[in-house]
Design a protein that fits this description.
Helices cover 20% and strands 29% of the residues. The strands form 3 sheets. Strands 3-4-2-5-6-1-7 form a 7-stranded mixed β-sheet. With 202 residues, it is α/β, with parallel strands linked by helices. The structure holds adenosine-5'-diphosphate (ADP). Adenosine-5'-diphosphate binds next to helix 1 and strand 8.
Length: 202
Amino acid sequence: LKSPYHGGHLEVIVGPMFSGKSEELIRRVTRAVIARQRVSVFKPALDDRYHDTAVASHAGRTVNAVAVRDAADIRAHLSGEGTLLHAQGDTLPDVVGIDEVQFLDAAIIPLALELADAGVRVILAGLDQDFRAEPFGFMPELLARAESVEKLTAICTVCGAPATRSQRLIGGHPARFDDPVVLVGAEESYEARCRVHHELRG
Ligand code: ADP
């Protein structure tokens, strides 16, 4: 049996940084490979070309992945330019996994739905909140449309409680709400934090 669902479906894995989203994606994908299913894994590229790479967890486990710029790249990779996914039939993989999905574009939503409608098990992992603890871009719509949502927690670096937020630090200090997402030349880092210990500089 391919899955508890009849045909394709959408599974979303969310949580803050260090919550084990990549680990959970790798675990699900590895099990599908063991079950001899055809699996394709994608992740956002830092440069603007396709290339082979890997999804790696902070603890070091990896699976092979293709680096892509956007949803259109994934579509092209799966179907070839201009071909409708639902006409692909048997040539589609059984499972499509995407890590760091929040860094792709909103066209990932219709693509994920189309793949699920075409019978594919789609597993998406990404941040549900940005460093301000605001909903991250198009992620809320993915959560709403998914058959299954797993919300993971990390461990708060201050108190050890379950952490649901990603603390952004710039030069060792909490970032401001309106700090630009990309800061040139600044030394920045991220930590997992709980609601109590997540801070924004006023
Ligand atoms: P994500 O994809 O959500 O960023 P990863 O799967 O890459 O998470 O990494 C999760 C791993 O990170 C944990 O299993 C643990 O080994 C490590 N880790 C480091 N810092 C923390 C933290 N503050 N809370 C939980 N895990 C952490």
